[in-house]
Specification:
The protein is an all-beta fold and 269 residues long. The strands form six sheets. The protein has a nine-stranded parallel sheet, with no helix packed on it. It has a four-stranded parallel sheet with strand order 7-9-15-17, with no helix packed on it. It has a two-stranded parallel ribbon with strand order 2-4. A hairpin with a 2-residue loop joins strand 11 (159-163) and strand 12. Helices cover 1% and strands 25% of the residues. The chain has one helix at 119-122; strands at 7-9, 16-18, 31-33, 38-40, 55-57, 79-81, 88-89, 105-107, 112-116, 154-155, 159-163, 166-170, 173-174, 179-181, 186-190, 203-205, 210-212, 227-229, 236-237, 251-253, 258-259. It is found in: Cell membrane. It is a single-pass type I membrane protein.
Length: 269
């Protein structure tokens, strides 16, 4: 964990037991990937010493902990994966605690998180709010050759995400790819209006929770959205016509809810 070590990737091994609480003040890690091991216990407090961390993947382990609020003061976070562990409790971002202003990917699927969705966190995730530095055509959702010849636009990290209903592994992560996956937890309450601010979001998955209320018309503001999954909740009312404005939407799943009314038509729908 010296100043020279920037990447530690030991995913898909047989490491077990707790993650040692030995990260030094001089920690300069940018990537820590421990996915698919058998790690237990809590996230060590000394991990906050790694103030240059960009990618943290603790998914598919047996970590039993609450949401790592202690890590919100690391301002360089781009990717946080806590998928398929044993996290529990609420997700919150109090005003007096730091934020993740450049966060792109938050995946906490398949845990035991509960209560309402973290609206106070959504207002702090500025990296998902605006597309900067690229034209609309250049951001044509991974379809143009623009990305193939610009290696600077990738993090050299592998990551498994659920996109368009399928679990897929990204060998490299685009620096402009954004995703929120809160699926398969115990979140309740209504969909927060703050989601409508995340205008650069590509993937939004809130499926398999206990969400109620109506689908917000403000989701029509998410002009970059390709994949939207609200299935297996208790949503009611009609599908808002504003969703027909999502020109890049290619996957939409509202199955197993209590929706009614007319399905809007036009553009992608």
């Amino acid at each position: 964990m010296s100043q020279t070590l920037g990447v530690l990737d030991v995913r898909r091994n047989n490491y077990s037991g707790p993650l040692p609480d030995v990260f030094p003040i001089t920690c300069n890690l940018k990537t820590l990937d421990l996915n698919e091991n058998a790690l237990t216990d809590r996230i060590p407090k000394s991990l906050t010493n790694c103030r240059a961390m960009e990618v943290l993947d603790l998914g598919n382990n047996q970590i039993l902990d609450i949401f790592p609020l202690l890590l919100t003061n690391i301002l360089t976070f781009h990717v946080l994966v806590l998928r398929s562990d044993k996290f529990r409790g609420h997700i919150e971002c109090p005003e007096n605690i730091g934020a993740w202003p450049v966060i792109q990917i938050v995946d906490v699927a398949s845990n035991n998180f509960s209560s309402e969705l973290p609206k106070q966190c959504l207002t702090k995730w500025h990296g998902m709010m605006a597309v900067k530095g690229y034209t609309h055509l250049q951001l044509n959702h991974l379809r143009f050759n623009f990305f193939k010849f610009n290696p600077s636009l990738y993090y050299q990290d592998a990551l498994t995400v659920t996109n368009k209903g399928l679990e897929m592994e990204l060998e490299m992560i685009l620096t402009v790819f954004t995703s929120i996956d809160f699926s398969s937890n115990q979140f309740c309450g209504e969909i927060p209006i703050e989601l409508g601010q995340l205008k650069s979001l590509y993937v939004l998955n809130l499926s398999k929770n206990a969400l109620g209320g109506q689908i917000l018309s403000s989701l029509g503001n998410l002009q970059q959205l390709e994949s939207l999954d609200f299935s297996n909740n208790s949503l009611n009312g009609a599908i808002p016509t504003s969703l027909t404005n999502l020109n890049f939407l290619s996957f939409l799943n509202f199955s197993h809810n209590q929706l009614s009314g007319k399905i809007p038509t036009g553009y992608q729908i």
